[in-house]
C-alpha cells in the first residue's frame, strides 16, 4: 500500500477508512439529500478507495428520526430531530476515531457537521492535537435563529460549532464551543445573508470567498488555508457539494452560480493530499433527486480519490513547490 500521500496523525492508522452513511435531510429546505449516501455508494466510492490501496470498511447507515417536514419553531426547523441525528453521528464518528480509523461521513445535509466536527474536536482534545477545519461551501453557514430567513439548520452548523445556537446542539461533544473561529477556513463562499455576514466578520473567521479566489487564484487561497498545518495537526475537510459550480455539479438543493471549476476543485483536493494530514471528511448536500445521471455523485467520488492521493502523474517534492 502506498501511503506517501496519506499519512494522517499518529493517533490514526494510515489507510484505514470508515464510511458512515447518514441518510437524512432533516436540516435542509428541500427533500432528497437523504439519498446522498446511496448515490455515493452507487458511484463506486468504496471501490475507488480500495483501488488506491486503502482498507475500507462501510459501517452502513445510521438510523434516526424521519423528517416531519414542519414549520420552524422559535427560529429552528426540526430541532429535536436534528439533535438526535447529530448525537448519533457524534458517537459513531468518535468511535471510529478511537479505533484509529479515518471516518468519512456520507450525508445527508450540512447540519450533520455539528455531530461530525464536534466528535473530531473531542478526539483532538483527547490526543492533544491541533485542529484545522477546511469548510468548502457556497455558504458561510453561520446563521442563527434571529438571523435565519428559513429556520433550516443546515445554514447554522458553523455558528453552532462556534457556540452560537441552541444549547442542545452546541453542547454535543461536551465542550462549548466545540470549535474556535481561528480553527476554521472557509473556501468558495459566495452566498451570505446580510446579518450572517456581519457575524462572520465579527467572529474573525478566515474566509476565502470567490472574489478572493478570482483575484488571487485558488493555489494562493489554499496555501493560506493550509498554512501552519504540521505533524501535530488533525486536518478535517467538510465538503458541501454546492461548493462546486452547478454547471458541473447540478445535484444539490442550494445551487449558487459562479463556483469553482473542476480543475480548481481538483487543485484543492490535491494540495490537501500533498500535506498528508487529512484525518476526517464530510461529504454533504448531495441530492440525487436533482442530479443528472448521478454525475454529481461521480464527481464527488473523483474529488475524494484526489484527496487520498490519486493524481495524473507522480510528482517530485520539488515539482509540488
UniProtKB/TrEMBL annotation:
The keyword Metal-binding is assigned to this record: yes
Co-factor(s): Mn(2+)
Top EC class of this enzyme: hydrolase
GO terms, molecular function: arginase activity; manganese ion binding
CDD domains the UniProt entry points to: Arginase
GO biological process terms on file: arginine metabolic process; urea cycle
E.C. no: 3.5.3.1
Pathway this chain belongs to: Nitrogen metabolism; urea cycle; L-ornithine and urea from L-arginine: step 1/1
UniProt keyword annotations, A-Z: Arginine metabolism, Hydrolase, Manganese, Metal-binding
Pfam families per the UniProt record, alphabetical: Arginase (PF00491)
Cofactor binding note of this UniProt entry: Binds 2 manganese ions per subunit.
PROSITE patterns, A to Z: ARGINASE_1 (PS01053), ARGINASE_2 (PS51409)
Catalytic activity: L-arginine + H2O = urea + L-ornithine
SUPFAM superfamilies tied to this protein: Arginase/deacetylase
PANTHER family recorded: ARGINASE (PTHR43782:SF3)
Family recorded in the similarity comment: Belongs to the arginase family.
Protein name (Swiss-Prot/TrEMBL): Arginase
Classification of source organism: Bacteria, Pseudomonadati, Pseudomonadota, Betaproteobacteria, Burkholderiales
Amino acid at each position: 500500500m502506498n501511503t506517501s500521500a496519506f499519512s494522517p496523525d499518529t493517533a490514526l492508522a494510515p489507510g484505514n477508512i470508515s464510511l458512515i452513511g447518514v441518510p437524512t435531510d432533516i436540516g435542509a429546505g428541500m427533500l432528497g439529500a437523504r439519498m446522498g449516501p446511496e448515490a455515493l455508494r452507487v458511484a463506486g466510492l468504496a471501490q475507488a478507495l480500495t483501488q488506491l490501496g486503502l482498507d475500507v470498511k462501510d459501517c452502513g447507515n445510521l438510523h434516526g428520526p424521519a423528517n416531519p417536514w414542519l414549520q420552524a419553531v422559535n427560529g429552528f426547523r426540526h430541532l429535536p430531530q436534528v439533535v438526535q441525528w447529530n448525537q448519533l453521528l457524534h458517537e459513531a464518528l468518535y468511535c471510529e476515531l478511537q479505533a484509529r480509523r479515518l471516518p468519512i461521513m456520507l450525508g445527508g445535509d450540512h447540519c450533520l457537521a455539528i455531530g461530525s466536527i464536534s466528535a473530531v474536536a473531542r478526539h483532538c482534545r483527547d490526543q492533544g492535537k491541533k485542529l484545522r477545519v477546511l469548510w468548502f461551501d457556497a455558504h458561510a453557514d453561520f446563521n442563527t435563529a434571529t438571523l435565519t430567513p428559513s429556520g433550516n439548520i443546515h445554514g447554522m452548523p458553523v455558528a453552532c460549532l462556534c457556540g452560537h445556537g441552541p444549547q442542545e446542539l452546541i453542547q454535543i461533544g461536551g465542550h462549548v464551543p466545540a470549535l474556535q473561529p481561528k480553527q476554521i477556513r472557509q473556501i468558495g463562499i459566495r452566498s451570505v445573508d446580510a446579518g450572517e455576514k456581519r457575524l462572520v466578520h465579527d467572529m474573525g473567521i478566515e474566509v476565502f470567498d470567490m472574489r478572493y479566489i478570482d483575484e488571487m487564484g485558488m493555489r494562493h487561497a489554499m496555501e493560506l488555508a493550509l498554512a501552519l498545518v504540521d505533524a501535530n495537526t488533525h486536518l478535517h475537510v467538510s465538503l458541501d457539494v454546492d461548493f462546486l459550480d452547478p454547471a458541473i455539479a447540478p445535484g444539490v438543493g442550494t445551487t449558487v452560480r459562479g463556483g469553482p471549476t473542476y480543475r480548481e476543485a481538483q487543485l484543492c483536493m490535491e494540495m490537501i493530499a500533498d500535506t498528508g494530514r487529512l484525518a476526517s471528511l464530510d461529504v454533504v448536500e448531495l441530492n440525487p433527486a436533482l442530479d443528472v445521471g448521478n454525475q454529481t455523485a461521480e464527481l464527488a467520488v473523483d474529488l475524494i480519490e484526489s484527496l487520498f492521493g490519486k493524481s495524473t502523474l507522480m510528482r517530485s517534492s520539488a515539482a509540488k513547490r
